[in-house]
Amino acid sequence: MKKICSQIAMLSILLLSVASSGAAVLSKSFDVALLPNEPFQKGFQKSITVDSINQQNVQLTLFNGDTKDGGSRCEDNIIGEGLVSYLNRLDSPTLYSLGDNEWTDCHRISNGNYDPLERLSLLRKIFFSKATTQGVQPMPVKRQGALGEKFSENSRLIYNEIMFIALHVVGSNNNLVATEKQCKKKSNRAQKDCDAATTEYIERNRRNIEWLKDSFKIARDENLAGVALLIQADIYFPFELSDGGYDDFLKSLDEKNGFTDFFNTLVDETHNFKGQVVLIHGDSHYFKVDKAMFEKNGTLTPNFTRVQTFGSNETSWVKMHVNPQSNNVFSFQPVILPNVKELQNK
Length: 346
What we know:
alpha/beta; globular; 34% helix
């Protein structure tokens, strides 16, 4: 009897040990907040979004750029100090991927005729001079470039078996100026300015591809459950992917398209990754969740999902639930709030 009791006791200790170690091995589910684009909409600050997120138990917030609307000036107190203050109001740390409204499009007359490359340099120094996320309770991140310098905005972190990647892919053709119309539209730019923009794209695009490949390699080597990739650009615009739209999108991926290398690399890396991949972007400011990648035989790529966040007049945000032990890993719930016009009319 004593021997049986002793064996039971030893078994209990073993089970307790396994359970304790399992708590460290088995990743818990958690929630992530996806901010809307344009937290500063024509002078209106979307404080209601921050208040709503802070009422939820989220471990991380993701912001995919477009600090302000596309028609207002790229002033320091908005794209710099204003956004710092805004993100510091969040209880959770924020991973930030730059958008075109805070630098690429700042050459526009309505945006103040700024030099976009000067704006980009400023943003790098303000937001990416530390190896941490934004916010008052930051998380450590790995950055690609020297802190505060070129490509320091490209970052990643791993949390509970999920890799989060911020990659600098922006709208306005990713700053590739391929035509005279792109150079002159809404702008007083000279050709030398447009040539400088294209040079910037070429260098950053090469480093983006390196960062993307390296990040997926780590995700594969560590057998992670998922990859969440944060960019600003709607790389699919202007195509709707139903009724042949996806084929039209693929045909547009040529040397004049600033997203060609990115998308082709993303397809390859997704195919070579066993876990789930979610591409989180803004730019078009219309919330949607879909399966935006297809195999050559016309079937959906099963481990790829695209989420486009709210933006423009919307203050709503998206709660992304992450369960590393589930088949889909990522699920999404829109949190609907009054829009800017409703709030201004109160």
